């Protein structure tokens, strides 16, 4: 019996307190918790169908040719977990579209595995809770565990060896605090070192890694409180320092990993100056050269102007806070 095709939409999330390090590689358990916001406008849309006469999985990414190599391997091993749970043996057809640049540090693996978790479990006839979906998505990509939920989300490190307590949870809904996010692209190419590889290399070789890990718990507390009390200044400070410390850890690896380009650095200086001059904004940067700028709705048009006026910002995406991953009707 073929199963019904199921389509899910998931949005990327941006970590304000970063995840950078693993306590278990095979189960993909994070070494620390993290805290993020899920964005609205950018999205991944994925359809999954299990086909009885299929012995293998096929994957179509952004309407391109059938995917192979590492991309397909990651999806196949993820689907194996779903098949095991649902007692299915057949292959699946997966169609996925990213409505933003793939692999450019815009966290497409987060929305990608969150959408896949929701669509594949539904297609397999499973009814999982948000927590179970988050745990499952984590095994595809750590940050995907957070995209299961909307608004402000905290990922728990957990302490259990089997990873049963390593899942994300929503801490405030999107309408708790109207923040805006501008994603400033500063490069058009694919990133050189993916986050998984960069994180593992940092963990193995950076003398700063233990110090980084030690700071995260306190940052989580500060960020949680700042979100609860809508304290923009406090959130700005903790988010920028979490970002800079994560990059300092990666820079100290051997050889050092430098995700930034000249435009990234120049933007940091410009944004800090604007903040000193009273504009409510802060930046964060992930495993790539792009800069994500958060601001209040009141500051948004000035921030857009500041970014749009620059030659080194190649593309600008505007986003607000959005919902968690969910099933949609039709493709
Ligand atoms: C810099 O979730 O992509 O974006 O679990 O190995 O798939 P894997 O890593 P991934 O790492 C995200 C790293 C980051 C920071 C963050 O999103 O917290």
Write down the CATH topology of the largest domain. Ribosomal Protein S5, domain 2
Number of helices: 9
Overall mean pLDDT: 94
What's the architecture of the largest domain, going by CATH? Answer: 2-Layer Sandwich
Shape call: globular
| CATH domain class of the largest domain | Alpha Beta
From the N-terminal CA to the C-terminal CA, the straight-line distance is 21 Å
Order of helices and strands: EEEEEEEHEHHHEEEHHHHEEHEE
Query: How helical, in percent, are the residues?
Result: 25-40%
* Total separate domains: 2
Describe this structure in words.
The structure is a single chain. The chain is an alpha+beta fold. It folds into two domains: 6-176 and 323-328, Ribosomal Protein S5, domain 2; 181-320, 2-Layer Sandwich (Alpha-Beta Plaits). The chain is 37% helix and 22% strand. The chain is built from nine helices and 15 strands. The protein has helices spanning 69-86, 108-123, 130-140, 144-147, 195-205, 209-228, 232-251, 262-276, 300-308; strands spanning 6-10, 13-17, 22-24, 29-30, 34-38, 44-51, 58-61, 91-98, 152-155, 168-172, 180-185, 281-284, 291-295, 315-320, 326-328. The strands form four sheets. It has a five-stranded mixed β-sheet. The protein has a four-stranded antiparallel β-sheet with strand order 2-5-9-10. It has a four-stranded antiparallel β-sheet with strand order 12-13-11-14. Helix 1 packs parallel to helix 2, helix 2 (108-123) packs across helix 3 and helix 6 runs antiparallel to helix 7 (232-251). The longest helix has 20 residues, at 209-228. It is globular. The protein starts with 5 loop residues before the first strand and ends with a strand. The mean pLDDT is 94. The structure holds ligand DP6.
